[in-house]
Amino acid sequence: MNNLVRWLLGTGGMCLTWAAGWAVTGVLIGAASVALPFLPWEPFFKIFDAPLPALGMPGFIGGAFFSALIGLAERRRGPEALSPGRLAAWGAVAGLLLGLLPAAMVAAGLATLNHPAGLWRLTAVILGPLILLGGLSGFASLLLARAARPWKKLLALLLPG
């Protein structure tokens, strides 16, 4: 199979896996906000005002960043040679890139900001959770690849060799 087709199949699967995981995380955040109302949920819900399963959309894009990063940086290694910490770090970098994407779009004139907090304050607020979710997703990607055959094939598609 052509390397580009392999990579596209692997990237698509990784994007869908990350999207599903992040959508479930959004639902769990909603359940936690109901079960633990004494925690300060207000700042989160001021920033993220979409339905909670919509967290899957940035998860999809984060999965694409993650796929590109490990496809470029880890192409000489097989899936068995990757450590959970290494993929967690690449996942965190994907979360960082994901968090900087809206600011880059505003800076390039491709988007506008309609939030009183300002661009850099809003970016700083969303970076922490996105880096954390990205790191956890990178770690979980390798655990899934080691535990289940379909995800092992998915990771192998991203790493030619």
Q: Biggest sheet, open or closed, and with what strands and sense?
A: none
| Separation, N- and C-terminal Cα atoms | 12 Å
Q: What is the helix/strand order?
A: HHHHHH
Total domain units: 1
Kindly name the structural category: mainly alpha
Question: How large, in whole angstroms, is the Cα Rg?
Answer: 17 Å
Low-confidence stretches: none
Mean of all residue-level pLDDT scores:
83
Number of DSSP strand runs: 0
Give the count of helical stretches: 6
Query: What would the principal axes of the Cα set say about the shape?
Result: globular
Strand percent estimate? under 5%
Into which percent range does the helicity of residues fall? over 70%
Give the arrangement of secondary structure elements.
Layout: H1 3-35, H2 42-47, H3 56-73, H4 84-107, H5 119-147, H6 149-158
Helix pairs in contact: 1-3, 1-6, 3-4, 4-5, 5-6
Structure in words:
By secondary structure, this protein is an all-alpha fold. It has one domain (3-158). Helix content is 75%, strand content 0%. The chain has six helices and no strands. The chain has helices at 3-35, 42-47, 56-73, 84-107, 119-147, 149-158. Helix 1 packs across helix 3 (56-73) and helix 3 packs across helix 4 (84-107). The longest helix has 33 residues, at 3-35. The two termini are 12 Å apart.
